[in-house]
Design brief:
4 helices; alpha+beta; single chain; Rossmann fold; about 90 residues; about 30% helix
Length: about 90
Amino acid sequence: MTLPRDGDDGPPSDAPMVLFVCAHGAAKSVLAAAEFDRLARAAGLAIDVQAAGIEPDPTVSPAVIDDLPEQTRLELPKPRRVMDSRAAPCGAMS
């Protein structure tokens, strides 16, 4: 999920990617990605921020949606499965 950015189309295609993963891709990874994206934008960094799950839920948790800024809520994709091909370019995983 590339998080929406006010007034632009997001980071360039060659931007580094940060991938947050949790069990269902519907809560912790979504909140972590949203906060990281907020901090990156505040610092003027172009970073492709993604969230995914090992066994994704059908939708993002309603409690999480309530905690997100309105613009992020409007464009929030449904949780998706983390794929080895998405994680492969990551420089570090834990």
